[in-house]
Design a protein that fits this description.
The chain has 21 helices and 30 strands. The chain is an alpha/beta fold and 678 residues long. Strands 12-11-8-6-7-14-15-23 form an 8-stranded mixed beta sheet, with helices on both faces. A 7-stranded mixed beta sheet has the order 5-4-17-16-18-19-20, with helices on both faces. A 4-stranded antiparallel beta sheet has the order 21-22-24-25. Strand 4 (103-108) and strand 5 form a beta hairpin. The chain is globular. Bound molecules: 5'-O-[(S)-butoxy(hydroxy)phosphoryl]adenosine. The site of 5'-O-[(S)-butoxy(hydroxy)phosphoryl]adenosine has 23 residues, from helix 13, strand 20, strand 24, strand 25 and strand 27.
């Protein structure tokens, strides 16, 4: 088989020792939502799929559903068939009776002297309705239309998402840090005629020009033959336009001005079928183009609500802060939909965690009384490095903390536990993916002890299996890694890849499908694309991606995407990307390029190539280093041997190079590495 880029990913976990357990405190258990030890019995495979009624019953249905799971068109699962529901109603309207005057959102601007904005459920209701009226009346949007959002971390983002959901419009939020070009690709793929953005936002203390990216996005979409009719622009400071870019006549609309015409408007929430798509979320996969993961309304919302309640332990009284970005699935599920469906108060922070100093998150926690905190290993590493003693200077107390996105090193876990959690908070390490809607593996906080570095057992109703390459099950305790799959469908699983159902089947279900055309779910294990192992205690340990995807700071970046960005530079003829371990981000890409005949390597050219990656994708894809090499190490069949490049990048032995067509290149690469000393 071809070499895999996961070698260095897997290393971290395989070299870990077995860790000891930590117990949840009695005070946490006393207040926890889920303490019933029979939970796993209730969700045993004999009770599948009816056990998921418990998830659906956390929601308010306009029309109750008739069938729990329809498998007749496997693997295109349909959950809660016949039900009618609206996500905006469930996250807003239904809380008005009890929580009208309670904060739904605490918005913390990055500039510390700007006051926190507290958006009550009543205010959220008013603003979502007015925005829904604008989308329907001004833009003519209707049920089933797609709209692309390219918005920063501000309350207007969930307001826009919920306004879309209210009228059955499918939102596709693109991470604000992505380039205009990346936004254009997603506009074209989703078929959005409307783009919604904001003029600017703060990052590391400077105002970013987001409107400029909208202009590029529309232009690049046009170059692909696609026309955007309307660009809606929110103002970061209502009443003041903060971008230097001119408005385009007939195309650009300032939302804050236009909304004045819809003051007091009320829009009945559409009664959407349970399986109507709620949103698209683009993610990187094995082949070049990002995939639009299509998530459902009923199944998705039921899944994130139950997991928010029982794994995040969110009660309506809690102040919950997930420090992710709403532009990723974590933010959709665990800043917006899950917490708001439960009537909680969800914190939205505009900026960088370490701005203006690494004490910032702890001041926010202190000021708002945050008691549930959710973040990624990358952020934990960065905060630990920048200010290991900061947390103890502030008077906050978390009952519960989450980590998500990549494996967390036990050392880092212990700092999180002792310093951030102050030895009192429970930690859940939640494993899942953009495609999954919500958590798949995690401890249940009041029931299972914690083990640093392990995601924990599968959630109730989730039955994982680890297969080897030939489809044999690797049993628990075998001390071997394999491909982790989920045997059964669950309500949060995405419905399809937008516009490409074949790819959905090919990439996620074909690998271990037992019988073509079968309508029995048992024949369709979901292939996650992660390596994993399961020690005797059953706690899954996730080793990382097994495909050509690099997990940078918890975000999947397609190596092919980065390589094609490099190839937009005319001097470049070949490009290969490999992951390198990084103290803070977990992994970062190193980019190897070969140049056209006769072109000489230079610093300027390296810069130009790095810049191309940033413009095509985003600064998060920025290569640690651009290596201009005389030749790529290749197999006899002409494939670039990334394993060798990865070894050079991380200063390790390249191993067996006997299958290389040009083994002499290895020595040349080594010499290059020594000269540049990275
Ligand atoms: C990939 C999914 C949905 C979470 C945000 C990232 C890795 C995720 C863990 C964890 C070890 C993890 C996997 C997965 N991953 N959580 N707790 N421990 N690895 O979503 O961008 O779709 O990436 O992140 O490799 O496949 P994503």
């Amino acid at each position: 088989m071809e070499q895999k880029t996961d070698l260095s990913e897997a290393e971290i976990a395989v070299h870990w020792q077995e860790e000891g357990y930590y117990q949840p405190s009695t005070s946490f258990i006393a207040q926890a939502n889920l303490t019933d030890p029979d939970i796993f019995k209730r969700f045993s495979v004999d009770n599948f799929p009816e056990c998921f009624k418990e998830f659906a019953d956390l929601l308010t249905w306009f029309k109750y559903w008739e069938k729990t799971l329809d498998t007749s068109n496997a693997p295109f699962w349909r959950w809660f068939v016949g039900g009618r529901i609206n996500a905006s109603y469930n996250c807003v309207d239904r809380h008005l009776e009890k929580y009208r005057n309670k904060a739904a959102i605490h918005f913390v601007p990055e500039l510390e002297h700007e006051p926190v904005q507290h958006v009550t459920y009543q205010e959220l209701y008013v603003r979502v309705n007015e925005m829904a009226a604008l989308l329907r009346n001004l833009c003519g949007l209707k049920t089933g239309d797609r709209v692309t959002l390219h918005m920063p971390m501000v309350p207007e983002l969930p307001i826009t998402m919920l306004a879309c959901a209210r009228i059955g419009v499918i939102h596709s939020q693109v991470f604000s840090g992505f380039s205009g070009k990346a936004c254009a690709d997603r506009i074209v793929d989703s078929g959005s005629r409307v783009l919604i953005t904001m003029d600017g936002y703060y990052r590391s203390g400077t105002m970013q020009d987001q409107k400029e990216k909208a202009d590029i996005a529309v232009k690049d979409a046009a170059a692909e033959g696609y026309k955007v009719d309307t660009v809606l622009i929110w103002q970061r400071y209502p009443g003041k336009y903060s971008s230097p870019q001119k408005l385009v006549e007939g195309r650009d609309v300032i939302v804050n001005d236009a909304l004045k015409h819809y003051r007091g408007a009320r829009i009945e929430p559409e009664h959407m079928p349970a399986e109507a798509p709620l949103f698209l979320m683009y993610t990187s996969g094995t082949t070049g183009k990002p995939k639009g993961c299509q998530h459902s309304t009923g199944g998705y919302l039921a899944y994130v609500t139950w997991t928010s309640k029982n794994i995040q332990d969110i009660h309506p009284e809690d102040v919950y802060w997930c420090m992710a970005d709403i532009g990723w699935i974590t933010g959709h599920s665990y800043i917006v939909y899950g917490p708001l469906a439960l009537g909680a108060s969800s914190v939205i922070y505009e900026g960088v965690p370490t701005y203006p100093d690494p004490g910032r998150p702890w001041r926010i926690a202190e000021e708002l009384g945050v008691n549930i905190f959710h973040t990624s290993p990358t952020a934990i590493r960065a905060l630990r490095r920048a200010g290991p003693d900061e947390p103890q200077k502030y008077n906050f107390r978390f009952k519960h903390m989450t980590t998500v996105g990549e494996p967390v090193e036990p050392e880092v876990w212990r700092w999180y536990y002792e310093h951030v959690g102050k030895g009192a908070a429970v930690i859940v390490d939640t494993w899942w993916q953009t495609e999954n809607g919500g958590f798949l593996c995690s401890t249940i906080p009041a029931l299972n002890p914690m083990k640093p570095g392990s995601a924990g057992p599968a959630l109730p109703g989730i039955y994982p299996v680890i297969y080897d390459d030939d489809g044999n099950e690797i049993p628990r305790g075998a001390n071997r890694a394999g491909n982790i799959c989920i045997r059964n469908p669950w309500p949060g699983i995405f419905q399809t890849v937008w516009g490409d159902p074949d790819r959905f089947v090919r990439q996620y279900y074909e690998r271990y499908n037992k019988k073509k055309g079968s309508t029995d779910w048992r024949d369709w294990p979901y292939f996650a694309g992660d390596g994993a192992m399961q020690p005797p205690d059953g706690y899954y340990r996730i080793l990382g991606r097994i495909d050509d995807v690099i997990n940078v700071a918890g975000h999947r970046l397609g190596t092919k995407e980065i390589e094609s960005a490099a190839l937009t530079v005319p001097e470049v003829v070949e490009a290969a990307v490999v992951p390198v371990p990084d103290e803070v981000k977990g992994r970062v890409p190193d980019l190897y390029v070969a140049l056209k005949h006769g072109i000489k390597a230079s610093r300027e050219l390296e810069e130009k190539i790095a810049k191309a990656v940033i413009t095509e994708i985003s600064p998060i894809a920025r290569p640690r280093k651009v290596w201009i090499v005389p030749d790529m190490p290749k197999t006899r069949s002409g494939k670039i041997m990334r394993r060798v490049l990865a070894a050079v990048s991380s200063g390790k032995d390249a191993g067996d190079v006997s299958t290389l067509a040009n083994p002499e290149v290895v020595a040349e690469l080594r010499k290059l590495a020594e000269q540049t000393k990275v």
